[in-house]
Design brief:
Layout lengths: L1 E10 L5 E10 L4 E5 L6 H9 L8 E8 L5 E4 L5 H4 L3 H6 L9 H11 L17 H14 L4 E5 L7 H13 L3 E5 L3 H7 L2 E8 L4 E7 L3 H45 L9 H24 L28 E11 L6 E11 L3 E5 L6 H13 L6 E4 L13 H5 L5 H13 L4 H4 L8 H15 L3 E5 L10 H9 L4 E5 L3 H7 L2 E6 L2 E4 L6
Parallel strand pairs: 3-7, 3-8, 5-6, 6-7, 12-15, 12-16, 13-14, 14-15
Antiparallel strand pairs: 1-2, 1-4, 8-9, 10-11, 16-17
Helix pairs in contact: 8-9, 15-16
């Protein structure tokens, strides 16, 4: 059993309460997903549960955690800084349980995770692995410790579709506790039997957390139904109140008029006393209604969705225009150590939206970098590139406003702050260094930069990897309505189905177009 009691987490810099008086109990068999908008503290909560020291540099917490003999294993959203320079062998050797594995057990891990048997002894540095290979290496090392509770921060990031299916099976079949964060709505729908919803309402001035012991789709449906009923009840009560108040006001005005029109000589008469008594009754009724109104149904408070638009219609690319035509006899790793694929040919015309899928390590990111290099140098189109590693483009010491500014004038500053506000940034968060933002908030900065640049071609490496399940539908809609071309890599099954016109699988023999988008 894993129990959290009365947990409150506060951001040290702006004193914003990230989590307020949160309590929860997780038992064996619970597969709990933490959902919420970017920057709401999901990763911070997971870090605190595993090791409060991991968040002490930016947040402070008050609360209790009882693990009751659970052996916790934690997968971070990004590879730990101290592990990036390690070779694969050094990374695995850092876990004592690695040396307890028999060759047969290591072979079993290799088969399940679809990596070579000698993967564990590789000399390749961790930071040079593909995103999916990093996740696989970390997951294998975690499982070697035989944990009873898995704390997984975006385990579906960057892993290929085959490994996604394995991850789904792992979560569903895990006998202990699984507490995870994921942007992959398909994964959430198929695995979670419990939802922890972390919200920041009233312009991020109030934290609210809901714990529901039900699948995600049921939670979302029942929540929407409940909000709709509450909204209708609240509106109905307010309509009745308006009619009642108008009627009472007419009575009050009538009584006041009669009192005002009584001649001075009749003010002590029985008629005068009766009118005053009626006025007193009206005032008494007013007070009674005020007390009743205090118990009226509140209109439901819900964290508003992000609002975002990408590209203008005037930037639409003519249907016949050749956006890209790339032909490669061979595709090698950047270091030239390994041949990845042969006979690659890809053509993109007009406003086509294509996605490249394939196994981890197949060379998708290497290919996309070559595409980006070619298109970013073109003068007849305006291309923008979003890498898998945001730090390649972001200056982490700058604030979002500083990074997005071009001219630095007041009008531009106002426009940037308005856009960031639509993306659910608070004024304080706009003043934070980008290094302190969540992965999803960093992704929003890059997408906003693309939007403000007027680009008509987007090159995107895992564009939805850090967006919450709540933000993702907005991102899918925004990208599907983008008037230009999109060339992307993704393993997000709903992104592929909702946004992309064509799906290409990268194999050793080149790119093969998939017949179905629902893969």
């Amino acid at each position: 059993m894993l129990q959290i009691k009365n947990l409150t987490i506060t951001h040290k810099k702006d004193f914003r309460v990230i989590l307020q008086d949160f309590s929860c109990v997780l038992n064996a068999g619970d597969k709990a997903v933490i959902v919420g908008e970017e920057g709401n503290g999901k990763s911070t909560l997971l870090k605190w549960i595993y090791d409060p020291g991991m968040m002490e540099d930016y947040a402070e917490a008050v609360g209790e955690r009882a693990a009751s003999r659970e052996r916790l294993a934690y997968l971070p959203q990004e590879l730990m800084r101290e592990d990036k320079e390690k070779t694969l062998y050094e990374f695995f050797a850092g876990e004592p349980a690695f040396f307890e594995q028999t060759p047969k057990e290591l072979g079993g891990f290799a088969r399940r995770f679809q990596v070579p048997v000698d993967f564990f002894y590789g000399e390749q540095k961790m930071e040079t692995l593909s995103g999916g290979e990093k996740v696989k290496a970390q997951m294998m090392r975690l499982l070697m410790t035989e944990p009873t509770a898995l704390l997984l921060d975006e385990p579906s990031n960057d892993i290929d579709l085959e490994t996604l299916n394995w991850l789904e099976d792992l979560i569903i079949g895990w006998p202990g506790i699984v507490l995870f964060i994921s942007h992959d709505e398909t994964l959430i729908e198929r695995t979670a039997n419990m939802v922890i919803h972390v919200e920041q309402i009233r312009r991020k001035t109030l934290s609210r957390t809901t714990v529901a012991h039900m699948p995600y789709e049921q939670y979302r449906r029942e929540r929407a139904d409940q909000f709709e009923k509450q909204e209708q009840q609240a509106l109905s009560e307010r309509r009745e109140k308006k009619l009642r108040d108008e009627k009472l006001r007419r009575i009050e005005q009538s009584v006041e008029s009669k009192l005002d029109n009584i001649p001075r000589a009749e003010r002590g008469t029985r008629k005068n006393r009766m009118i005053k008594k009626k006025m007193k009754a009206v005032k008494s009724l007013e007070h009674r209604f005020e007390r009743e109104d205090a118990g009226m149904t509140e209109r439901p408070e819900e964290e508003s969705a992000i609002f975002f638009k990408l590209g203008e219609k005037e930037n639409r690319i003519p249907a016949g225009k050749k956006v890209l035509e790339i032909s490669l006899d061979e595709l090698w790793t950047p270091e030239g150590e390994r041949l990845l694929a042969r006979n690659i040919f890809l053509q993109v015309r007009g406003s086509e939206k294509i996605v490249i899928v394939g196994k981890n390590g197949a060379g998708k990111t290497t290919l996309l970098r070559k595409v980006a290099k070619e298109l970013l140098e073109r003068g007849d189109i305006h291309a923008e590139y979003m890498p898998q590693n945001y730090e390649e483009l972001l200056n982490l010491s700058m604030t979002p406003v500083e990074f997005l500014a071009v001219s630095g004038d007041k009008q531009e500053d106002t426009r940037i702050r308005t856009f960031l506000g639509a993306l659910k940034y608070t004024a304080d968060e706009m003043a934070h260094p980008i290094a302190e933002l969540s992965g999803g908030q960093k992704a929003k900065v890059l997408l906003l930069k693309m939007s403000m640049s007027g680009a008509n071609v987007l090159i995107l490496d895992e564009p939805t990897r850090n967006f919450s399940a709540l933000s993702s539908p907005v991102i899918w809609k925004m990208l599907s309505e983008f008037p230009g071309a999109i060339i992307s890599i993704s393993h997000d099954r709903k992104y592929i189905a909702e946004v992309c016109d064509k799906v290409y699988r990268l194999t050793e023999e080149g790119l093969i177009e998939e017949k179905e988008r629902n893969i």
